[in-house]
């Protein structure tokens, strides 16, 4: 049996000309560039060496665990060409049994954490142009999301409009807005931005590792492996900020996506949030109209890849907010074995619920034509 699937979180690996050829000329001498490092092979150099992204570490889908590491030499010819070649990407989708992917950046995740807001703005504008060109090859299968640096509320709204004009389907938000003077995301001054996203039909995504917490920093306790478990926390904090800050009361049509932070934890978070509301609501700066779990289950979608627990808790959450993903070509990807993994993880699940999670919810959220074809068979029997 082959399931119809749409990945709600996949990535490209930005090519060498992504930024250099499209960036504001004032920043061209600092633009991210692709080089071959003698120790790591294929890398992207950020801001003249201020940071480096080893592509062998990033684009490691399908590689065995003992060949995934920052100091493993991986040449350009060993990478998945679908990271930058749209025609090759369609072939890689077919190999994994995926009919479409929501495409996020890779280098752009690291750029989200840089303190120089002007540099981020220049890089994101260049990336948005490139991903729109990439998407144009097959817009129903290659679904790009743009980036915004959020140097101000008004500029952020302008970014949303430009992203929509480019034909992109969503926006990857920085975990922390660049304009700290306008407050965190629960500040009412952001409400016009949220409303603009609603009016433009752009879901807003918060991806892991874009809030200033990276695997390479020292903000974790114990062995380094412990940091891998902690990367979910930044996304949980953003969700809590928006729920407890009353954002969804003030902008009731807003939809946001918590990306690659798994979903098995959501029922417990909902319980804990409701408990806090029942026993400690005097901590709130403004009253909430409903219980926190109600906002969570109505306004926040959650992507996950091999989190089998997400399929076990569908009765404890709004399953229409669960979005399966393959994370290709990153190191946590289920590619090229997504079909086998889903067969195992969804065994015994109601087929209608299963199909919602593995393709239909994503199609609804992003308005994908492929998903609207409800007459299309969701299964094929193997001869």
Main beta sheet strand tally, sense and closure: 8 strands, parallel
Q: Which secondary-structure class do the elements indicate?
A: alpha/beta
Low-confidence stretches: 213-217, 371-383
Can you tell me the CATH architecture?
Alpha-Beta Barrel
- Total helices: the number is 16
Distance between the termini: 10 Å
What is the CATH third-level topology name?
TIM Barrel
Reading the helices and strands in chain order gives EHEEEHHEHHEHEHEHHHEHHEHEHHH
Total number of β-strand segments? 11
Estimate the helix proportion, in percent: 25-40%
Verbal overview:
- This protein has 383 residues and is an alpha/beta fold.
- The protein has one domain (6-12, 85-372): Metal-dependent hydrolases (TIM Barrel, Alpha-Beta Barrel), CATH 3.20.20.140.
- It is 38% helix and 14% strand.
- Strands 1-5-6-7-8-9-10-11 form an eight-stranded parallel β-sheet. A three-stranded antiparallel β-sheet has the order 2-3-4.
- Helix 6 (153-165) packs parallel to helix 7 (191-200).
- The longest helix is centred in the first third of the chain and has 19 residues, at 117-135.
- It is globular and about 60 Å long.
- The termini are close together.
- The model is unreliable at 213-217 and 371-383 (pLDDT under 50).
Detail the topology: elements first, then pairings.
Layout: E1 6-11, H1 17-20, E2 33-37, E3 41-46, E4 51-54, H2 55-58, H3 86-96, E5 100-104, H4 107-111, H5 117-135, E6 142-147, H6 153-165, E7 170-173, H7 191-200, E8 204-207, H8 225-230, H9 232-244, H10 247-250, E9 256-259, H11 266-280, H12 292-299, E10 300-304, H13 308-312, E11 322-324, H14 338-345, H15 351-366, H16 369-372
Helix pairs in contact: 6-7
């Amino acid at each position: 049996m082959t399931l119809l699937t749409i990945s709600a979180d996949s990535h490209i690996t930005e090519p060498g000309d992504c930024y250099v050829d499209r960036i504001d000329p004032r920043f061209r001498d600092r633009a991210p560039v692709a080089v071959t490092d003698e120790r790591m092979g294929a890398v992207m150099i950020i801001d003249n060496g201020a940071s480096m992204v080893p592509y062998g570490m990033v684009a490691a889908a399908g590689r065995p665990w003992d060949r995934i590491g920052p100091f493993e030499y991986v040449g350009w010819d060993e990478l998945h060409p679908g990271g930058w070649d749209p025609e090759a990407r369609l072939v890689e989708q077919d190999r994994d049994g995926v009919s479409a992917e929501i495409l996020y950046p890779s280098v752009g995740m690291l750029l989200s954490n840089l303190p120089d807001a002007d540099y981020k703005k220049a890089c994101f504008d260049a990336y948005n142009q490139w991903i729109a060109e990439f998407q144009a090859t097959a817009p129903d299968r290659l679904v790009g999301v743009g980036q915004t640096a959020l140097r101000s509320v008004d500029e952020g709204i302008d970014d949303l409009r430009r992203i929509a004009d480019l034909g992109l389907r969503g926006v990857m938000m920085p975990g922390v807005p660049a304009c700290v003077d306008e407050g965190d995301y629960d500040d009412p001054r952001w409400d016009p931005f949220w409303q603009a996203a609603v009016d433009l039909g752009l879901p807003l995504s918060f991806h892991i590792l874009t809030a200033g917490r990276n695997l390479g920093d020292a903000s974790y306790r114990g062995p380094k492996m412990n940091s891998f478990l902690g990367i979910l926390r930044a996304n949980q904090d953003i969700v809590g900020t928006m729920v407890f800050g009353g954002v969804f009361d003030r902008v009731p049509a807003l939809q946001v996506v918590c990306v690659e932070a798994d979903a098995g934890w959501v029922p417990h978070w909902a319980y804990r949030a409701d408990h806090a509301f029942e026993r400690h609501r005097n901590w709130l700066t403004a009253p909430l109209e409903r219980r926190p779990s109600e906002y969570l289950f109505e306004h926040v979608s959650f992507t996950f890849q091999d989190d089998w627990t997400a399929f076990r808790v569908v009765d404890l959450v709004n399953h229409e907010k669960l979005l399966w993903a393959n994370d290709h070509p990153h190191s946590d990807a289920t590619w090229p074995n997504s079909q086998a993994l889903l067969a195992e993880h969804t065994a015994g699940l109601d087929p209608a619920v299963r199909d919602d999670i593995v393709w239909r919810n994503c199609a609804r959220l992003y308005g994908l034509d492929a998903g609207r074809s409800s007459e299309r068979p969701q299964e094929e029997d193997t001869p």
